[in-house]
Amino acid sequence: MNKKLNLIWLFSLLMMVQVCFVSCNKDDDEDTVSVADLKTAIIGTWKSVTMSADIDGKKSEQNSTDQFYSIIEFKSDGSYVATDLIDGEKDTDNGTWKLDGDKLIFDNDVEDALLITIKGNTLTTTEEDTYKEDGEEHHEKYVITYKKQ
Question: What is the pTM of this model?
């Protein structure tokens, strides 16, 4: 009887281990929207969650609050409405958007295109720039994470 009980316990333990491996085998890229599907996935309203900056290696991050956030609505006709709230001051902008692969272009400004990814209900925009000023090279990187509303 004791041998049978040990065998059942061992079998149960092995089954539990298998279940853990199967449940942990989720591919993280599974939810990432392909470049081909970005145009339909981006349609809707997105509200910022975090904004981070890396300027010449100095990093900072700001979480969105009731007094500091950005909302952007991408419409299927290629137009957008963006609202920024900073310290109670609201600024609204509108114009056109388009995608060139995974590059988001506002108002035909190709030079300032943003790299985007969408994973689940999260949109991430990344903007990088390297420039020279007073003989020194500077590097800036801005990342904004949005959640679909």
Answer: 0.75
